[in-house]
Amino acid sequence: RAPTRKKPHAEMPVLADLLHALLLPLRIVLRLIHRLLYSPTWRTTYPVTRTLPEPVAPAARKGTWTLRTRTGESPLGPVKHTLNGNTGRQLWTFDPAAAPAAWEADALSHFRREYEAMAEVRHHSADEPLRLQALRETGGKRRAAKPLPKGAAEAEQVDASLRHGIGFYGSLQMEDGHWPGDYGGPMFLLPGLVIACYVTETELPAEHRAEMLRYLRNHQNEDGGTGLHIEGHSTMFGTSLNYVAARLLGMAADDPHCLRARAFMHGRGGAVNNTSWAKFWLALLGVYEWRGINPLPPEMWILPYWLIVHPGRFWCHCRMVYLPMSYLYGKRAACPPTPLTEALRKELYVEPYSEIAWEEQRNNCGPADMYVQHHPLQDLLWKVVAAAEPWIPAWLRRRALSWCADMILHEDGSTRHVDIGPVNKAINMVCCWYDDPHGEAFKAHLPRIFDYLWLAEDGMKMQGYNGSQAWDTAFAVQAIAASGLGEEAEVSPILRKAHEYLDASQVREDCPEVERYYRHISNGAWPFSTQDHGWPISDCSSEGLKGVIAVEALGLPGVAALEPERLFDCVNVILSYQNTAEHWGTGGWATYENTRGPAALELLNPSECFGDIVIDYSYCELTCACITALSHFHRRHPGHRTAEISTAIKLGAQWIRDKQRPDGSWYGSWGVCFTYGAWFGVVGLASVGEREATSPHVAKALAFLRSKQLPDGGWGESYLSSSRKEYHHADASQAPPPHPLARAHSFPHRTTWHADASPATPSSACLPFLPLIPQPV
Asked: Can you list the alpha helix ranges (DSSP code H) found in 98-227?
């Protein structure tokens, strides 16, 4: 027989009750102290009661899309702040009362259908709505290209091609002088904006949502998934976020698009098998648990800057994303359950939502998404931080969140609420809404949403920036000036308008308290896009400077030269960017700022799908752009900071030589890829006088380029070169081939474009997206 177990303290009931009575007040006091001092990190927050109805699929509407600039309007109210009258701002507007002409409606429908039919093969759009808009003012007609006689000399053909190419390009120039264009491609940008709008109860116009759904449909891969970018293989990151975006935009769960995407996700373990960025967005939406994410404690921002791991040392695009992420993580911000989020909790995962072991999913990322493997020390660090976080005092969490909010507002204010890029734009908007849903800081974000939206025949996308206006314009004017035709009557107005844009887009002041907010000087620089955006970049400043010098050297009437002091300010910024020994460098140039830490900081890269994002590295393209700009400037102003400029150029040129690969190429980080790097490398060395006959570095580079030339005379390189860091040929030469729509009978109203247009003669001049190059007859 088993012995009878006695009840605890059965022999001393009075003493036990007395001890319990004495300890109970102490336990209550300790619990109250813990609640007062420590952050309730297990709780989610949401500042209002939801009132926005659940989304429904938008109905198709008739009307006309038009790209506008120099406007502060938007469907969600006017822009609150601008420095130059919204010069360069790109806004696609929809007018339901303006019926397009029959020829334009037919053409756009045709281009949309054709893109859908070829989406698996030709991922990039051709900006057909923009080109059709350029033709709208002329009723769909362009001046006929003058045919060349048979046997025309090559010089005549080149001259005629240049004239008509420049004429075509000039027809796309906006009234403020810049050239617009598609800067899309990444597939994780639009879902972030859609989630941010759903969380903040911001309703996008129906016509915008319809075009967004068109975009999501067009870029679904054959296996049902979606890639990191439009050319990439399917990933859980791309598929899960774009699935969520489609549902939030009103697509039904039983739509074939959703069924295929769910099959892709479920066949690979569900959305738990995902990147940390995807998990952040899903947690913010309330369809993933915050405890399933590696910690992003806001307290890291109040560490002393002398610590080498301080996030103020990170590359600006990295830190400006993780800043608002850490703010929302610190608040455990999450959308409350809605019928749609409850449905998504069932649709995204294989197992029931309530049975998922969230802590075990923190580092769960599939091979299709894994580009950067976490270092074991990083995983150990996150475990330690996760264990320690519940004991962070509440006062310290409040202080950290307050400092993060201050930095977010500084970023918003110094960019007129455009923000440095689309990711932190959407997250900053949510942060401001959490701080005050009815506040001016949040309201100022809403009109700037549309600065990032671009329309093409594949639908409406969110761009990787608010455009590339200054960058494209600077290159365009350099090319046109180099043609030798810049002083001619039909070309000079194009250059004059472009010079006006470069004048209006130069950054004219530093941000407030640059050191306090970890910013670099910016007065005199050129941005990538607009002055309102304002973030300075070394190569954009260099190309802007070269563009201004190239136009002003022509002495065109009506072109007011910039004051020399403004050029001196730009040179000052360019020189400040060079990475010398104090910036962990040897003479190269980085992007937005100097390198602020060693490459070992990359061990802390918390993302799985982005490489080399923690610090701002020196790059071939930027170094070459800077030394060529300094060379151009030195020839125009030989007496200004001569010794400093000469030393900088010498160091930069040697850096370029040192970074050349044994095969003669350079790895290009900001374009695809070795072809892009070789272009800059050769031009950079040429700017210091090196030539093929006298420079082994130039000779090797040209030999590399010749070895990659294709049989048809062109070049073609795949994006795989960028990710695999070795040269990969594209499937074909990357020159636009004759297009089926080039036959004049496809659009009879265009037959006046070319003197030789006939049903049997393909003519590139009949295409709105190809240059008007005359053909010999």
From this structure: 102-118, 128-136, 154-171, 189-199, 206-218
Judged by DSSP in three states, 428 sits in helix
pLDDT at 31 over 90: no
Residue 285, judged by CB atoms within 10 A of its CB (0-12, 13-18, 19+), counts as buried
Contact 334, 198 (CB under 8 A): no
3 state DSSP class of 230: coil
The set of residues, in sequence order, having a beta carbon less than 8 Å from that of 736 and lying 6+ positions away, is 764, 769, 770
Q: What angle do CA 603, 608, 610 make, to 5 degrees?
A: 85
HSE at residue 675, side-chain half, CA atoms within 13 A, is 20
Question: In terms of DSSP bridges, do strands 459-462 and 453-456 run parallel, antiparallel, or are they unpaired?
Answer: antiparallel
Positions marked active-site: 539
Q: Which of 526, 536, 420 is nearest to 470 (CA)?
A: 526
Q: Tell which residue, 612, 629, 631, has the closest CA to residue 574.
A: 629
Contact assessment for residue 455 and residue 92, using Cβ atoms and an 8 Å cutoff:
yes
Helix, strand or coil for residue 192?
helix
Least confident of 416-425, 559-568, 739-748: 739-748
Q: Kindly state the average pLDDT of the residues 590-595.
A: 97
pLDDT in tens, 492-535: 999 999 999 999 999 999 999 999 999 999 999 999 999 999 99
Q: Which tokens sit at 242?
A: 């774009």
Q: Indicate if the pLDDT at residue 564 is higher than 80.
A: yes
Q: What angle do CA 504, 506, 512 make, to 5 degrees?
A: 120
Packing angle, helices 339-347 and 236-248, rounded to 10 = 150
Kind of pairing between the strands at 459-462 and 234-235:
unpaired
pLDDT score, position 771? 31
Residue 567 DSSP SS3:
helix
Which among 177, 160, 67 is positioned nearest to 765, based on CA atoms?
Answer: 160
| DSSP code for 575 | H
pLDDT class of 675 with cuts at 50, 70, 90: very high
pLDDT of the residue at 93: 98
Beta bridge partners of 454: 461
Please, are residues 687 and 631 in contact by the beta-carbon 8 Å criterion? yes
3-state DSSP call for residue 773? coil
- 64-68/91-95 β-pairing: antiparallel
Closest listed residue to residue 503, CA positions, set 85, 130, 171: 85
Give the Å distances, CA to CA, from 3 to 6, 9. Answer: 9, 17
**DSSP structure string for 91-104:** EEEEETT-PPPHHH
> Region 353-358: what's the mean pLDDT?
97
- Give the pLDDT band of residue 146 (cuts 50, 70, 90): confident
